[in-house]
Amino acid sequence: MTLVSDADRRRIGDAITQAERTTSGDIVAVIAAQSSSYLYVPVLWAALAALAVPWPFVFWTWWPIQHIYLVQLAVFAVLVAVLMPLPARLALVPRSVKHDRAHRRAVEQFLAQDLHTTVGRTGVLIFVSVAERFAEVLADAAIHERVPQAVWRSAVDDLTDALGRGDAAEGFVRAIAAVGEQLARHFPPDARPHTLTNHLIVLPAT
Length: 206
Known about the structure:
Blueprint: H1 6-20, E1 26-32, H2 40-52, H3 54-60, H4 65-83, H5 86-92, H6 95-112, E2 123-129, E3 134-139, H7 141-146, H8 153-164, H9 168-186, E4 201-203
Parallel strand pairs: 1-2, 1-4
Antiparallel strand pairs: 2-3
């Protein structure tokens, strides 16, 4: 699945470059197709359904136990196959669980992209997980002291709305501009070069 086109990647990279000209802070943008495989979900639901299968046959039929067991196995196998496609898996996972998995991956990426190592602790991650329709802005300690997380709410809302419309690139560009505005206000540019990547990082599906 193509999450963003090459043209959109260049557009997002240009937006980061432009925003960082006005601040000493660093912005990194990451997009993931999904934050978890959720492969346990079909197995879990199929197992629960299969456990309930024998009871009607035990109480209301004279079927041999071997036949009932075969029906139980068939129900399990069919449900696993039906529920295995990603849209079905996602539909069965509570929203809170999906957002928890996506937030966990955002934190992992904050560390993986070395945002916690920036001079002055002024790194910001803009993270999107498409399957979960999840977006988050994570800021390092120095930024968090001056810009509370609630300030990013509008940028996150715009980003998730753009995801819902299938226009992740526009959402990123708007979020980058909003983050850049806050960084420029509190952390003006200085002589230190920006050391982190400006291009959009696309993560493979888990």
